[in-house]
Amino acid sequence: MNNTFTSEELQKIDQIKSRYPEAKAAIMPVLWMAQAKWGWLSEDVMRTVATTLDLPLAHVKGVATFYTMYFKKPMGKHHVQVCTNVSCMLRGGDTIFSQVKARYGIGHNECTADGRISLEEVECMGACGGAPMIAINEDYYENVSFDEVERLIASLP
Questions:
Q1: CATH homologous superfamily for 78-154?
Q2: Residue 124: DSSP 8-state
């Protein structure tokens, strides 16, 4: 796999870096950009980010492994996150997670064999008033039932 940024992407990275007093502060948006481009943050991708930002690989890996929003292994085209924290759990989030897990035969941070769906149990998505909630990629859905989740997943390309 070619783990290099295009000249247009490097320009965008320069714009991102210009917002901060030091390049180190640009690491999170650049990691996000890298994940969007390559789908996940392999060791080689993290090395590319480190080289691009002129940072130690250990620093990049430290940030990437600390935050769960960065994938350290390939995930599905459609990443389904189900909140099971207190508010969501009390309103059925844990049941929804179990049902999605059983329906697709995958567990936490696993992916279907065809690479279409991955599943993640998350602690809090910051919408307790709309519990239970899920996210599919970057789209958030509140007050969902398992049937609604099934319809949403079935409607994905």
A1: Glutaredoxin (3.40.30.10)
A2: -
Angle formed at CA 17 by CA 62 and CA 1, multiple of 5 degrees: 60
Please answer whether residues 112 and 76 qualify as being in contact, where contact means their C-beta atoms are separated by less than 8 angstroms.
Answer: yes
Let me know: does 132 contact 86? Beta carbons within 8 Å. Answer: no
Contact 119, 110 (CB under 8 A): yes
Distance from C-alpha of 112 to C-alpha of 80, rounded to nearest angstrom: 12
Location of each CATH 3.40.30.10 domain in the chain: 78-154
CB 110 within 8 A of CB 73: no
CATH number of 7-66: 1.10.10
Q: Are 55 and 128 contacting, i.e. CB atoms less than 8 angstroms apart?
A: no
State both tokens at 70: 């960065």
Per-residue pLDDT of the chain (157 residues; tens, 9 = 90+): 578 999 999 999 999 999 999 989 999 999 999 999 998 999 999 999 999 999 999 999 999 999 888 999 999 999 999 999 999 999 999 999 999 999 999 999 999 999 999 999 998 888 899 999 999 998 999 999 999 999 999 999 8
Could you give the CA distance from residue 83 to residue 72 in angstroms, rounded to a whole number? Answer: 20
